[in-house]
Specification:
Length: about 375
Amino acid sequence: MVVREPDTPAEEAAMSMEDDAMDDDYYAAAEAEADEAERELEAQNEAEDARRFILGSSADAAIEVDGAGVGTGTGTGTRTGSTSPTGTAAASASGTRTRSRGPSSKVWLDFEEVTEIQGGKEVRVSAICHHCKNTLSAKSSSGTGHLRRHLDLCPAKKEKDRHGRTQSMFKFNANGSFVHWEYSPSVARTELCRLIARLDLPLCFGESDAFQDYITNAHNPRFVKSSRQTTARDLIGLYNNHVEQLTDVLKNFSSVSLTSDIWSGKTKEDYISVVAHFVNPDWCLEKRLLGLKPIEVAHTGVNIAERVEMVASDYGITDKIFAIVLDNDSSNKIAIDVLKPIFSDYIGSLMPKPARIEDDLAAVFLHQRCACHIINLIVKS
């Protein structure tokens, strides 16, 4: 067969439209053929239901009548013996029929049949979607293809599929016991903030499609991603909660020592870190990061002292400072001079009265120089 090539763009477009129409006709015919086959199958199933109703569970099986007599059934659909005027026989005589099983198509798991009595026969006229409650035409003589297509597009079903699946499991405690665990969106957001902080990830990490696909497909299908704005708010709330908890912990200690140094981030921004060190009731040394404040001004002693004092005030430990460890930079010496009167309460109470914190002797105990920095200077020299 010779295929003629189009001579003009208009003719080419017309031929393309003709091909599309032929494809549509083909798929429409195929779908109609499938619906017709399904209707024939449903008709066969209904006929089988009727045969089983009349003859019993088997065409040749004996049927007990009223608990006293025995009737016989034949393959031709006849039966002998007396029947009770009640029960299924009465239902059949009244023109209604109760199905021994539901429709064969699985689509009816998501729909409710609406039937009417027409010509003395119960027929299906419509179907109600269990999800969106919409009523669709579903005559007994029609197929169920349009019902399946409705389920594919039903927004209420999609929402239920996304949120309706529950996830629960048992979580084991350290002592070997276990408790029932359920997914909590608030806990998921908190743990996302902790992950971002520990791995120094960008705030937009939680809103990425790749991260959501990983969690929903591998761990929890109910997970909903968080925007960077939500993550930023959650981080601030988590930080404030951490400050409150750590402040309560530090209230139980009479003295705390500090270490501080200037640290540069990946973006070349400078921060000053303040770390608290203390001995717990079990005589174990512990440390907690109190603050990482940006220092956008010159690294002078006054600016360093101002930020260290700010962090100590936030935690209410200005009267509990035993010692501060700083390196040997000249600006740190000036910072100690500024901090001496601010941190005078605790270290001053340990000194003899003639030598209070204002004295140079007391300042020696307050300022502890960094041994690692000293060793580094020795190696460089």
